[in-house]
């Protein structure tokens, strides 16, 4: 089932999310719905708070980046095989040079900005069967994971922008929270008047 994506301004996007156990109700169904929602919106990642559920869960599938001709063959190979579920993740380390990449977010449609992040991360997490993993990623894979990880920490990519950039997009963000935007997928807006 395709779920509405929560728009900028909703308090759920600012919550530090809670860990879950294998007993979490209807977890498999939630994960299936998140995949369906993400693909329908042409996303490469989706975190549970973006569908209104404040738990430490996100999914990624950065296959779309594997077509980028500017990438090395090795990185393309990694990206095309990286469809994953992350439950209760913890980023253990972020290392390397900070680099800029133009990021967007399904909860903040039509806003894209360059964001600086470290190039390499090590993350510990559980998969959908609650098996534990510790893995290291770099480049775009690390970036997609960092972006989704921020969501479960209550952080948005716009928080990482300079104060000047924040001022420049303030009006756009206000319009998104009021539902004054045309998105190509279902959204839930926090400040829309009832009956609109």
TrEMBL record:
InterPro entries: Peptide_deformylase, Peptide_deformylase_sf. CDD domains: Pep_deformylase (cd00487). Fe cation binds at residues 105, 147, 151. The keyword Protein biosynthesis applies. GO terms for biological process: translation. GO terms for molecular function: metal ion binding; peptide deformylase activity. The keyword NAD does not apply. It comes from the Bacteria. Its EC number is 3.5.1.88. Its cofactor is Fe(2+). Pfam families: Pep_deformylase. Keywords: Hydrolase, Iron, Metal-binding, Protein biosynthesis. It catalyses: N-terminal N-formyl-L-methionyl-[peptide] + H2O = N-terminal L-methionyl-[peptide] + formate. The active site is at 148. Binds 1 Fe(2+) ion. HAMAP family: Pep_deformylase. Removes the formyl group from the N-terminal Met of newly synthesized proteins. Requires at least a dipeptide for an efficient rate of reaction. N-terminal L-methionine is a prerequisite for activity but the enzyme has broad specificity at other positions. Belongs to the polypeptide deformylase family. This is Peptide deformylase. It comes from Antarcticibacterium flavum. The gene is def.
């Amino acid at each position: 089932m395709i779920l509405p994506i929560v728009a900028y301004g909703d308090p759920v996007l600012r919550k530090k999310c809670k860990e879950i156990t294998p007993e979490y109700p209807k977890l498999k169904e939630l994960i299936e719905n998140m995949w369906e929602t993400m693909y329908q919106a042409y996303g490469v990642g989706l975190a549970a708070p973006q569908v209104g559920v404040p738990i430490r869960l996100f999914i990624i599938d950065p296959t779309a980046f594997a077509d980028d001709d500017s990438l090395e063959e090795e990185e393309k190979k990694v990206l095309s095989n990286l469809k994953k579920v992350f439950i209760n993740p913890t980023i253990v380390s972020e290392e390397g040079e900070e680099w800029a990449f133009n990021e967007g977010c399904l909860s903040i449609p039509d806003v894209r900005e360059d964001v600086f992040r470290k190039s390499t991360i090590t993350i510990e997490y559980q998969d959908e069967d609650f098996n534990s993993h510790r893995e290291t990623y770099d480049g775009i894979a690390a970036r997609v994971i960092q972006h989704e990880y921020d969501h479960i920490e209550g952080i948005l990519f716009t928080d990482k922008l300079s104060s000047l950039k924040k001022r420049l997009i303030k009006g756009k963000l206000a319009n998104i929270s009021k539902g004054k935007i045309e998105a190509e997928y279902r959204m839930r807006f926090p400040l829309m008047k009832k009956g609109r």
